[in-house]
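Per reviewer request, we include the raw input and output of the structure prediction for the construct analysed in the revised manuscript.
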Amino acid sequence: MATHKQSGKPFLYALSTCVWCRRTKTLLDALKVDYDFIYTDELSGPEKDAVVKALEEVNPARSFPTLVLGKGKCIIGFKEDELRKELSKCPKK
């Protein structure tokens, strides 16, 4: 199990069934951004509780997708222009 606290890379909290999460992930891949992600809906028990708690720290609404970029920067939802701008600063694969 990973969370944004354990990763120095952009970290995506997503749902496996969410079209906006898939679009965000597709954009990250297309831009060749080195990132980590987790499908929160595929977890259960204490593992899910820990991930939801970590998500809640950066996004109290716990909505998806949530992309944590570090240093307090977080993009909630699929906002393509903002994503492209911020991801251009991220390390590539």
